[in-house]
Amino acid sequence: MLRLPAPLIFCAMACAVSGSGWSQSYPSKPIRVILVEGAPGAITDLVTRAAAPDLAARLGQPLIIENRAGGNGLPGMEACVKSAPDGHTMCMTSITTMSFHPHTFAKLPYDPERDTRPVTQMYFLTEGIYVPASLPVNSMKELQALAVAREKSGALNFGIPGVGSNPDIYRQWLSQRWKTNIVGVPYKGFAPIVTAVLTGEVDFAKMGLGNAITHIRSGKIRILAVTSSSRTKLVPDAPTMEEAGVEGFNIKGWWGVVLPAGAPNAVAARLSSEFIHQFREPKFADFLESNYLESVASTPEQFAAFLKTDREYVGQLLKQYDVPKQ
Fold first, then answer.
1. How far is CA 178 from CA 64, 86, 188, 240, in A?
2. Closest Cα partner for 41 from 187, 210, 166?
3. Which end of the chain is more exposed for a tag (fewer CB within 10 A), N or C?
4. Dist CA 31 CA 28 (whole Å)
């Protein structure tokens, strides 16, 4: 894992050099980067700091990174949407604040569609399905067979970080697909879920690859499938969800960049092109994969279309499984 220095302001020698055409006037001052839900040391903090030096060099201005963790991401989003729409504040947002919150909060202090301008999607989190090494299954099909066989003697247990969370929705979706009952067992975060899988307290779980990779390599946890679009070299023997025969669940953890609504189209396009350049660079793509992420940098138009589809899909599932609002 790449280790980065602590300073919040990133700038290269090229910061003093401006580009050509209209970009000579943008950016005209340092760019504030709000990490919504982005605690220091968290994955998006790590990725943003890794990308910042090269982005600053190409943009000609330093990036001032502001961590706004806590409060379910609401303080960070409020700070984002209330900022001047001049392109000098960009915000790292996620599926939680952009797709889940509109359906899980009765009163939300922002509207993700009305109050933001999409710039680019950055990455998907690579997740996996994990079972204890002691569980006698080696594939999702064998897990399905066990779930059906255990229906009468006792349902399989599935670790979740909370009711209505991404893994909990997946549990209900999988129960419906397999026509069986899978019991959700709530824990306070993914660390205790890993322990529960290790000890066999739960039969399986779905979470980010980084949570379980050490135990996969030690042989204490078995991975049955990954959510990435293709196999990852980190666990090359693990099939994709499609290869494993459980494709179709389209809620995947993701992060992306937005601006406050009203920011110029040209600014969004310029920032998008810089992120695409950065995230498709082979060494940076390798860095992302080594941190259990799948690079999916996109144009503002592509990200806007994805956001609309993702938000509607999440809403449909939350309604289908009767997830209560806060």
1. 48, 50, 27, 18
2. 210
3. N
4. 9
The DSSP code for 240 is B
Token pair listed for 213: 């990779």
In degrees and rounded to multiples of 5, residue 268 shows phi and psi of -60, -40
Cα–Cα distance, 34 to 155 (Å, whole number): 43
DSSP state, 207? E
CA proximity to 159, closest of 217, 213, 99, 200: 200
Rounded to whole angstroms, the Cα distance separating 261 from 116 reads: 4
Is 127-226 CATH 3.30.70.360? no
Token pair 């899980």 in the structure block, residue? 104
Per-residue pLDDT for 199 more than 60?
yes
Q: Which of 180, 184, 152 is closest to 167 using CA atoms?
A: 184
> Residue 107 carries which side chain, given as an amino acid letter?
K
What would the pLDDT profile of 215-240 be if each residue is shown by its tens digit? 999 999 999 999 999 999 999 999 99
Over 70: is that where the pLDDT of 102 sits?
yes
Q: Where in the chain is the domain with CATH 3.40.190.10?
A: 127-226
Q: What distances in angstroms separate CA 261 from CA 36, 265, 324, one per listed residue? A: 16, 10, 29
Lookup: tokens for 51: 């990308």
Q: Which of 246, 126, 244, 222 is nearest to 174 (CA)?
A: 246
Could you check whether the bond before residue 27 is cis, i.e. omega within 30 degrees of 0?
yes
Per-residue pLDDT at 17: 38
- CATH T-level fold of 9-125+251-320: D-Maltodextrin-Binding Protein; domain 2 (3.40.190)
**56: Cβ contacts below 8 Å, ≥ 6 apart:** 10, 11, 12, 14, 15, 62, 63
With beta carbons less than 8 A apart as the criterion, state whether 276 and 123 touch: no
Q: How many CB atoms lie within 10 A of CB 134?
A: 10
Q: Where does CATH 3.40.190.150 sit in the chain?
A: 9-125+251-320
Looking from the CA of 263 toward its CB, the CA atoms found within 13 Å total 31
Residue 158 φ then ψ, to 5°: -130, 125
